[in-house]
Amino acid sequence: MTMTPQTRRRFLLASGVTAGAALAAGAGGMGLAQLLRTAGQDRADAPSKKLVLVTLYGGNDGLNTVVPYTDPAYHDARPELAYDPEKVLHLDDALGLNPVMRGMKQLWDEKRLAVVLGAGYPRPDRSHFRSMDIWQTASPAEPVTTGWVGRWLDGTKAAPEAAVSFEPVLPPVLAGETRAGSCVNVGGLELPPGISADAVAALGRGEPGEPELQARAARAYGDLLRVEQLVRDAEQHQSPTPGGVEQEVLTTGPGSRSVLETQLALVARCVEAGVPTQVYSVSLDGFDTHAMERAGHESLLTRLDRALSAFVARMARTEEGRQVTVVVYSEFGRRVRANASQGTDHGTAGPVFVLGPVVAGGLHGEQPSLTDLDDGDLKATVDFRDVFGTVLASVLDAEPDRYLGGGYRATPLPLLTVD
């Protein structure tokens, strides 16, 4: 049977192949080997500054991440979840990091961690989907179809490798009107029963006369097969890091590094290779802690802490790495008061982390009051678009007001030590 581009596209959607939805939407698929080949261009022309966006899906509990350990209202509102002051990793005489975040505390001591307090937006929405859409499109007032990085890709007429996601599907933040970032799936292919890699490879062959977007989607499936082989190869080999230290590149089996660590290891590899990508997107899921929060949240923060501290330490070893800035955010925080299930429900404002060698460490913004609340929720003290506007200007050398949604004029924050 001969497949037309249309029937092939429908098959790809129905087959359950990971990343099919993103590709069908017109997002660019790219294999890691293909991405690394872009490092062959003239280094002098490649942009030196890089931005890594880390998305915490589910709504991270900011009050148990950056803990107001001296505030009686904190202990009164969540007696079973609150941390004793002596266990918190103190940042100053009022706030401290969760006890499991020892790597982040070291970065704080080295002045490579900035904490933006009370980040949010006007008239907060407690829906996961709508709130994350707001953060990724930078448009709280009305839904839009492009992300703030995607609009930057449009405005700069960027190449596909300018923004890369190491996630299963392309996040909205990288989607523009005429451009989109590329999606490199860490896990390679997940094929449903009855569909072989050979069948997918056959589907990936171009057909004469088909539209460019469909041809690009077809090529992407061939790239995904190459990523799968690359992952298998990486599991069996070591890759030397700067200084001669052997370090595992990528593992995915039981007891291995977390998905976030794997994603950041791939980012590090690309940065060290001189790939011209300017924006990377990675993520960690599971922060919707409605019940039995304490142990689960600590496990998530342990993975986050380990991944971020190792990545920043590795980036500090090379000139390319020292130009990397990391921003960590979630769609919202949690409510101040614990619920009846020893968890917390959807809230509003929360902290944003900014990390890296060029970061001006310290606290930025004002910690929201735990007694002056909006229907039981924190009132945002910093608009998140000021954070994204700052990195647009300082990392991407762009005009923030051009790419933030709804005509918003960002107020720069002193988050970085260089422009």
From TrEMBL:
It comes from the Bacteria. Keywords: Signal. Residues 235-254 are annotated as: Disordered. InterPro entries: DUF1501, TAT_signal. Residues 1-24 form the signal peptide. PANTHER family: BLL7424 PROTEIN, DUF1501 DOMAIN-CONTAINING PROTEIN. This is DUF1501 domain-containing protein.
